[in-house]
Design brief:
This protein has 65 residues and is mainly alpha-helical. It has helices spanning 6-19, 25-29, 33-64. The longest helix is centred in the C-terminal third of the chain and has 32 residues, at 33-64. The protein is elongated and about 70 Å long.
């Protein structure tokens, strides 16, 4: 029989409590749509600036040839 420690007891208690919730743990940790939209918008703006920068560098290299 395995030894009982406070860490394993706490892990077992948290698992048994999560089973009684309405939503699974992964779904509960998922951010809401507004937070995801803000992050996607920020990433899209950064990707646009990076694309513009790479385009300008590429044009400058082609002009120098």
């Amino acid at each position: 029989m395995p030894d009982s420690t406070p860490e394993t007891d706490a892990a077992l208690d948290s698992e048994s409590e999560s089973g009684s919730r309405d939503r699974p743990a992964l779904l509960a940790a998922t951010p809401d749509a507004d937070a995801v939209f803000e992050r996607l918008r920020t990433l899209a703006l950064l990707a646009g600036f990076l694309g513009l920068l790479l385009t300008l560098i590429g044009v400058e290299l082609l002009v120098r040839i």
